[in-house]
Amino acid sequence: HLAQQEWGPGQKKFERILQNSSTSNDAYSLIALGNVWLQTLHQPCREKDREKRHQERALTMYKQVLKSDPKNIWAANGIGCVLAHKGCINEARDIFAQVREATADFPDVWMNIAHIYVEQKQYINAIQMYENCVRKFRMHHDVEWLTWVARAQTLAEPSADFPDVWMNIAHIYVEQKQ
Residue 154 belongs to what H/E stretch? Predict the structure, then answer.
């Protein structure tokens, strides 16, 4: 369900798994459920109380994993994401840096560090981080990643025009849809 962005049915399945006493601390299910709550933070929401509740639910899931497995990089990365959503940019950056120190083979944390650089208006650092990740993880045809690079470039040089970059992204997108 989660692969198809069907958050409600996915949430129910993982909640059912966690209700079973033998799987109540299943790290995969807890992280997946935390990710469902985290995903809701990407949706436009005018209700601040609801947004805060979802942040806390996601944090609770990730923290529960870290209690039993303090080195779980996915749970730590999730906590960093929630902190970033809360506006705790420096704290999120510190967590992402620790995760990246633990393993350099986790593209999500590279992306999150680059996003933090964008939030801090450190566009050149963001561009370098995105581009390094695109190279390292061979994401030359990933439209989402290439769009982040292009966005950071546009923010770094608002008066510049990057038609080649945007045309390349459009070309890749069309190819993937065929």
Answer: helix 143-156
Q: Is residue 87 part of a domain?
A: yes
Among 151, 153, 84, residue whose Cα is nearest residue 116: 84
Label residue 85 exposed, middle or buried (CB < 10 Å: 0-12, 13-18, 19+).
middle
In whole angstroms, how far apart are CA 67 and each of 75, 100, 118, 142? 10, 20, 31, 35
Count the neighbouring beta carbons within 10 Å of the beta carbon of residue 20. 10
Instruction: Give CA separation, 16 vs 11, 28, 135, in Å.
Output: 9, 13, 40
In a domain, 67, yes or no: yes
Percent pLDDT > 90 in the chain is 43
* pTM tops 0.85: no
Judgement on whether residues 81 and 139 belong to the same structural domain of the protein: no
- Give the side-chain half-sphere CA count within 13 A for 89: 9
Provide the 10 A C-beta neighbour count for residue 86: 16
